Backbone:
């Protein structure tokens, strides 16, 4: 899991920095104007696609760190046994739902790739855009499963765990 987390973090930071660099370059190109600006038309579409991969790529990490939006007031008022049972039910439902969404997204990728659609400015198959939900929901399903079998504790992540996993990622 440590390697997966490290890969996800490197991927997300790389995508974000690439988006910033491309968008900054596009702004400079528009200021210069002329033929150079029209040659940079692909940047807007590329940044939009990268943003989709950024959002879906962060789903698993956000869940693992307990950063997903949730209404936990009632859940935390329950007795410990009922609270733990409810948490396991949430993890099972989340895992099954995300696995199903992964399957549906995969079917969508196959369908769109078979249509032959291509993006207008990047000239890549549009079906590759739909791989972002496949990966994102797959990672989300994995995190729900790991929470279900108590390999990760997504309900009360410690700040120390964040620091130690960051230190482990650097070494």
Residues:
């Amino acid at each position: 899991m440590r390697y997966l987390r490290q890969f996800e973090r490197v991927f997300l930071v790389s995508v974000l920095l690439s988006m910033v660099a491309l968008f900054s370059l596009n702004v400079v190109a528009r200021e210069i104007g002329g033929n150079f600006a029209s040659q940079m038309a692909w940047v807007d579409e590329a940044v939009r696609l990268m943003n989709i991969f950024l959002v879906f790529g962060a789903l698993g990490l956000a869940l693992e760190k307990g950063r997903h939006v949730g209404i936990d007031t009632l859940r935390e008022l329950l007795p410990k046994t009922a609270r733990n049972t409810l948490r396991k039910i949430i993890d099972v439902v989340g895992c099954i739902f995300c696995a199903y969404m992964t399957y549906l997204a995969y079917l969508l990728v196959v369908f769109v790739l078979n249509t032959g659609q291509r993006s207008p400015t990047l000239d890549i198959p549009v079906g590759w855009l739909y791989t972002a939900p496949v990966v994102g929901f797959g990672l989300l399903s994995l995190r729900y499963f790991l929470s279900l079998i108590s390999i990760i504790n997504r309900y009360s992540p410690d700040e120390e765990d964040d620091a130690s996993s960051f230190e482990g990622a650097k070494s």
Q: What stands out?
A: The chain has one domain: 2-170. Residues 158-171 have pLDDT under 50 and may be disordered.
